[in-house]
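Moderator note: this is an archived Q&A kept for reference. The question asked for a predicted structure of one protein chain; the sequence and the answer are reproduced below.
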Amino acid sequence: MTTAYAIPERRTWPEAAPTTVYTVASGDLRLAANTTCWPAQQAFEEQVREAFAAHGWETERAHGVDPETGHGFIDSQARGIEVFRSVPKDAPVVVVDAVWQYSHHVLAGLRAHRGPILIVANWEGQYPGLVGLLNLTASLTKAEIEHSILWSRDFTDEWARTKLGEWLETGSIEHDTSHVRDLGAVPDSDEARLGTALAEQLRDDHAVIGIFDEGCMGMYNAIIDDEMLNPTGIYKERLSQSALLAEMALVPDAEAEAALTWLEQAGLTFQWGQDDATELTREQVLSQMRMYIAALRIGDDYGVDAIGIQYQQGLKDQCAASDLAEGLLNNVERPPVRSRDGERELWAGAPLPHFNEVDEGVAVDALVTNRVWTAMGFDPATTLHDIRWGEEYDGEFVWVFEISGSVPASHNGGYDRSYSMRQVPMFFPKGGGTLSGVSKPGEIVWSRVFVMDGALHADIGRAHVVELPEEETQRRLDSTDHQWPIMHAVLHGVSRDQLMARHKSNHIQVAYAPDAEAADRALAAKAAMFAGMGLEVHLCGDVAL
């Protein structure tokens, strides 16, 4: 019998041109962000081209500018797959990041690529290029894809040029990560016993994290497989953001108004306006109060121990931003919310830990922090920040840790030292207020839970938050997103380049302790709890156990 099946031919890829690198630019899914940020991306790509030319290499952009959108970003996973069909399989590939990017746009192409891979970002605060680089390196690390990373203001400095030459010659770049050491055996102490006992309790009794739609903004690194997560004692309750919208619609106007009135009486300053497209309006914030109340009630329904709202895709087109609600959930003092029948106050006198952007590494971290800090009698308010940028000030490197408007008020020193501004229109078309402020000076523990080599890892270190002059704070805000909360952080024993070389996420988790000695004790207990949960724990920088 003769058949006439349409058997496809194997795809062939073009041959690589000699001394040529192929560049790609992963972008946002949101058109407004891509068109706004495109000029900065173009300028940085030219700097990268000049840097390769100085080494005698050509750059060939693997994709052009879309005449309909007016930008040259890869703006979907399907587009990324299409682009990589024209990239020679064995050629050196450079992902050029001057903006926030969705890692899954290029993950498929990079996973199948056989040549050396480099991610470069510009050392600027204007748009989150460094944040994009850190997310992509974390995603490739989880996917076990070999790659190198490099950063520079404009790639004219000797350090960056030398590292670029190293990659061209060897296909990889070695960075200094001598600040990292394995935890090893935990020294016996009251804190170690506390952490171990809390880990045993978690593994015995289990905990539930409620996730409103997994996989925010292409952050492949922020998804932890159940088979890896469950042995720690943590289980997922997969929730739908459509259910959150439905619950928001059931919140009576009087309850939303009461929550907003509570915040105003607590001293939170709202920078009100009238233009819904560009300014903060009362109706936007009332929508956020409904989200806050709805999240607590759904969390109560499912018995969750922490909760995460994705927001950026889906909800951004339906309602105001989630950030104000997120910051409230992470704070001990917050507007009281009762069960639907009015019989119980939900999480009275305690936060319901929220993990922003449904980052499950943050979920593990926030849950651990909440239990350790609560057991030690410290304020358990915790939050993530993006590692946005930083510069030296008065002889020390001061990081700009900044997130999209959702810190707990206690990190700013209270509601009367916090403020709310309308969210950035290009990211948040429906508006909504931030929970912003300047983080108070003090001692903090920082950490990150991530996936590497097929296992859960945790890096943990110490830092302190400094107070900068008002004009320097404002300069840093104006250099990034002035609507968002900012933390001026100085890491202990970890340089700028060491953190960039090692950190496997765009996010960093922070929590305050009463003083330096208390922070050291809290770090020891937290490290012991991580270890007791089965994580591979690494101490970073100057850490006392």
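Archived answer notes: Residues 450 and 457 are 5 Å apart (CA to CA).
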